[in-house]
Amino acid sequence: MSEIQNNDLREEQERVNSVVKVINQKIKNLQQNTGTVRSDVLEIRKSFWEDVTVNTDEPDDIIETAASIKQQAELLSERERTHKHMDKNLKTLARLKYSPYFGRIDFLEEGEERVDQVYLGIASLMDENDENFLIYDWRAPISSLYYDYSPGYAQYKIPKGIIEGEMTLKRQFIIRQADIKAMFDTGVTIGDEILQEVLGNNANTQMKSIVATIQREQNEIIRNERSKILIVQGAAGSGKTSAALQRVAYLLYRYRGTLNAENIMLFSPNPLFNSYVATVLPELGEENMQQSTFQEYLTERLGKSYDVEDPFSQMEFLLSENEGESYFIRVEAIRFKSSLEFKEIIDQYAVKLSTEGLLFKDISFRGDVIISRNEISEYFYGLENSYSIPNRIQLVKEWLLKELKRAVKRERSRSWVEEEVQFLEKEDYMEAFKKLQEKNQFTESTFDDFEREQRLLAEMVVKERFKPVFARVKNLRFIDLTEIYLRLFKQTDQAVKSLPKHWSEICKQTINIIQNLVIPYEDATPIVYLQDLIEGRKSNTSIRHIFIDEAQDYTPFQFAFIQRLFPYSKMTLLGDFNQAIFSGATGSETVLTDLDIRKKEVETFVLTKTYRSTKEIVEFSSALIAGGEKIEPFNRRGKKPTVNQVEKTKLNGEVLEKIKELRSEGQQTVAVICRTEAESKSLFEELKGRIPLHLIEKGTVSYEKGINVIPSYLAKGIEFDAVIIYDCSRYQNESERKLFYTVCTRPMHVLHMFATNGISPLMNGAGKDLYDIV
Ligand SMILES: Nc1ncnc2c1ncn2[C@@H]1O[C@H](COP(=O)(O)OP(=O)(O)OP(=O)(O)O)[C@@H](O)[C@H]1O
């Protein structure tokens, strides 16, 4: 290091020390204040009722009491909020103390004489007098200079316009425990050295934030505020998920005060992924957004009475070797049911339902029909048909509830009630007694107390037994949704021109499966959509921004459905059509390939640089897909992928040896990726007594370092140090190309493939120089 560099380093370390001093002082002050607020909270909680005047004698007193409670509750919640806020600040300060910042830019704004030194960290920090910024939040407008420019002319946006000037220095730091471990003055791309270091590390079972090394094209996505729908098509490992999460953090910062974590929702591919990304936002001092899988949403909507197939079971079906006629019919059905044409058919069907065809269920009690399906239907179609279906359904519901109340009265005098009353527990009698007393109906002297008690008990018994019937009506379960949906397959006008070739076979198959009470995954969205058209559904207004990761797995129908649910939300869709494993298997459109959504409000970004894997792995995996030559690897070197040819009987033993080899090389997270669940299970059973390892299944919510055996389709979105592809000979069909590409893009450092029956034909496009045959 030259003397100048040495001086620079000394000065920078001195600055770090002085910043840490300020942080320490702020922590001390805050801790004192937090202590006071905490005892306030405890004190208010303890004396809550002492400080409230409770008087319920007169109506005025009741109003006064309510006001007094409200005031006390408001005071408590204000103190609690302050406490939470202070706690959050303390945590942020602790993080800053460990590593105050990661970058510096010197910027001379046009027309100014003084160069500003801007230090960037995960949060802002002011000096002791709260006058100058010691650290700028990475999301502040000026910070974007760091991500977008190299020294020379530079500009950044502020709400009122554009600030131009010259960047005279751009410096990166690695600071740990307030100690500068490394420092680089950078030129064209930021973070080459630091990226080398970060990406060369071991894979993590939890994703890390990338704020220190965000690339320019990622920054553009993170800070985009224009688009209503922003689509990111990015190669595997190009940082789509990372960009999504930093974008959440950016939006929370940019719109703080009006946008909270609860207003943002992330649809993720599986529960495992939820936990994989869960630490990024807290690491950045933000709360996690809401997270759900689309499957969870559908299942919740359809309720317990339906058994909904999950997308992974659908995938297992597609990967199964049973490729008879019914297989191809279902594949065609999946394709069609994903399309907007099918949605259109449902829309037209719903219009027809307005005048005929809605089906209902009998409302029964103790085996007797109280209100028959025909009566409900007559009532429904007797209503003014200019009312929408959902409005009429509400009127039917109200009518049914009235009818039910009448039925309750009738029922009280039935003999079964008397019998049940006799078998009631002592507590039930006590309750009835209490109620009578409350109603002032019970006096020691009245002669008909016994009768009243019996009447009350009968009322209680009947009410209790009617509860589920009322609940069913309130939840609109009197609509026979399944039958209505199935009718679509019994009577669709065969003349509709968009119907698929084997429509009548598809109809038969659909009816068959659904009548056995299983809803195939491809039918779940259409059914919930139809349910919304019939029942009406208020659109969700609290969610203001939706993120859909792995968007290539969503069908155009599903996306249209999501848009309908969240009409006021902005959307960020991130995906890679080369990893469209579901649609790849069926040839359906995905939301990324369907042109219909590419309207004016859509802006698309393409990420071609990829960061996860070594150059050798990227070169090999890119050769598996069309257009792969456009994927640009980050220049981190490793060994070429290998193909290990073995006899089937020796496969498991060889895999075990390979795992041991990788572990001894220091690879901490090793995944053995099998094609299907069955393959994973059988390998796991065979190896589990011989080496510690975990099996990842569709319900698995987190994974650990060490060895994981995992089915192909669950490995999407996550990464490992090393991957062993259990048997690449098993990837034979063109329809599995995307799946094969996806699994080959999971490792950061090492990729080994085993082959029991020659290399996969899907590798034919990859030159022999891209992998080693062992
Ligand atoms: N700018 C960056 N700085 C540091 N690391 C990065 C950067 N961009 C991406 N990475 C790293 O590259 C890896 C892949 O990122 P990420 O999972 O976000 O990519 P992806 O596009 O979602 O991948 P896939 O489509 O394969 O799921 C992660 O380890 C991530 O931390």
Automatic annotation (TrEMBL):
Gene3D superfamilies, alphabetized: P-loop containing nucleotide triphosphate hydrolases (3.40.50.300)
GO molecular function, one term: 3'-5' DNA helicase activity
InterPro entries: DNA_helicase_UvrD/REP, HelD_bacillota, P-loop_NTPase, UvrD-like_ATP-bd
Keyword entries, A-Z: ATP-binding, Coiled coil, Helicase, Hydrolase, Nucleotide-binding
Signal sequence annotation: none
Superkingdom as given in the UniProt entry: Bacteria
Residue span(s) of domain UvrD-like helicase ATP-binding: 213-614
PROSITE patterns, alphabetized: UVRD_HELICASE_ATP_BIND (PS51198)
Short name of one Pfam family: UvrD-helicase
GO CC term, one of those recorded: cytosol
Parts forming coiled coils: 426-453
Record PANTHER family: DNA HELICASE IV (PTHR11070:SF17), UVRD / RECB / PCRA DNA HELICASE FAMILY MEMBER (PTHR11070)
Name under which the protein is recorded: Helicase
